[in-house]
Amino acid sequence: MKWDSNVYDDKHSFVAEYGKAMLDLVNRAQGQKILDLGCGTGVLTNELAKQGATVIGTDLSPDMIKTAQSNYPHLRFQVADATQLPFDNEFDTVFSNAVFHWIPNQKQLLHSIQRALKANGMLVCEFGAKNNIAQIQTAFEQVTGKRGYCYTSPFFFPAEAEYRLLLEQAGFAVMHCIEYDRPTPLADGEKGLHNWLCQFFVGDLQTFSEEEKSEILRETAELCRSSIWKSQQWVADYRRIQVVAVKKP
Ligand SMILES: C[S@@+](CC[C@H](N)C(=O)[O-])C[C@H]1O[C@@H](n2cnc3c(N)ncnc32)[C@H](O)[C@@H]1O
């Protein structure tokens, strides 16, 4: 997916805001070296640096990295694919918020993180769990399906037991792995779901004409209304998985 860093900061800043809760899971001991994996526009990279760590932010999107670098010129950012990190035995912690569900090849991802971590280094991450955005995806699938389109979810949303197993197979000792509902209010009132769909389903929507796209957005919202429109705002049916795991020596 192509990310637009300006839209992301303007309409989706809630992603990093929720990620701040994870900062408490990170070791704050002096001299920590941390990789913020899939750092986006660098909000959490900056928070980690404020806690006293030496931090590098990496992201696959050159646009995100350009904005992160201009927002925080004193920090180091670089473009890198999380599944092929150019680091060996370098970090005390790999931190990542709202990224893993975008990456289909989880074995390669965890292998790449293993290599980047020092022995006993920690992985602290949170991303979408099984049934995340189920209402929104089901409505979108139904509405686009009526027009002959076959929506297939691009996301990896695992259950806790499935992910625990993957972590163990990749050589991590799992310290903490939970799934939880995190109903997420979307900014901008009535337009909130429209903005969200345009950002996160951009690839699917671009296969339709402008007229069809408007209809799809309107019909998807109508189908979702009874379940996720709550007193003047959309509240997306987010479900997260949160992980702390240690690289076995
Ligand atoms: C929802 S944003 C989260 C950004 C940031 N962590 C935050 O909390 O605001 C997801 C980010 O994952 C990045 N991403 C997706 N696939 C990636 C990959 N294979 N390697 C590195 N970054 C990736 C995207 O470019 C995007 O910046």
UniProtKB/TrEMBL annotation:
Pfam assignment, any one: Methyltransf_11
InterPro entries (alphabetical): Methyltransf_11, SAM-dependent_MTases_sf
Gene Ontology molecular function terms on file: malonyl-CoA methyltransferase activity
Statement: the UniProt record of this protein carries the keyword Methyltransferase: yes
Name under which the protein is recorded: Malonyl-[acyl-carrier protein] O-methyltransferase
Species of the source: Sporomusa sphaeroides DSM 2875
GO biological process assignments: methylation
EC supergroup of this enzyme: transferase
Keywords (A to Z) from UniProt: Methyltransferase, Transferase
Keyword Iron included in the entry's annotation: no
E.C. designation(s): 2.1.1.197
Gene3D superfamilies, per the entry: Vaccinia Virus protein VP39
Domain (Methyltransferase type) ranges: 35-125
